């Protein structure tokens, strides 16, 4: 595998000295090799940590207790049922 470290450094706007190029090339090849060896499909639940399992909450739709008029009655400016706020960006 041929990795052009000078080109990558140019794209990343990094300055790499010539004596460091070989070290960075070996490091980059090691990273690419590691990524190539990652499993393609991580749907296997055995890869998850059983001590830290994620339990997702069930989504439940709740009806609003308050009407739009009740929510906006204390707002300083309301137009067409929407809050009017000062302009912040020109």
Please identify the structural class as seen in this structure.
Answer: mainly alpha
**Termini separation (Å)?**
51 Å
Give the helix tally.
3
Order of helices and strands: HHHEE
Low-pLDDT segments: none
Backbone CA Rg: 28 Å
Shape: elongated
Arrangement of strands in the largest sheet: 1-2
How many E-type strands?
A: 2
- What is the arithmetic mean of pLDDT? 85
Descriptive notes:
There is one protein chain. This protein has 90 residues and is mostly helical. It has a domain at 5-36. It contains 3 helices and 2 strands; from the N terminus they run αααββ. It has helices at residues 5-11, 21-36, 68-72, and strands at residues 78-79, 82-83. It has a two-stranded antiparallel sheet with strand order 1-2. A hairpin with a 2-residue loop joins β1 and β2 (82-83).
Looking at this protein, list some descriptive labels.
single chain; 90 residues; 3 helices; mainly alpha; two-stranded antiparallel sheet
Put the structure in a nutshell.
With 90 residues, the protein is mainly α. The chain contains 3 helices and 2 strands, in the order αααββ.
Layout of helices and strands:
Layout: H1 5-11, H2 21-36, H3 68-72, E1 78-79, E2 82-83
Antiparallel strand pairs: 1-2
């Amino acid at each position: 595998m041929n990795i052009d470290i000078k080109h990558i450094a140019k794209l990343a706007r990094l300055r790499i000295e010539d004596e460091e190029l070989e070290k960075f090339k070996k490091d980059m090849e090691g990273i690419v090799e590691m990524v190539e060896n990652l499993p393609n499909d991580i749907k296997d639940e055995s890869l998850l940590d059983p001590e830290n399992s994620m339990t997702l909450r069930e989504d439940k739709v709740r009806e609003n207790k308050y009407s739009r008029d009740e929510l906006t009655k204390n707002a300083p400016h309301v137009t067409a049922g929407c809050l009017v706020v000062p302009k912040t960006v020109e």
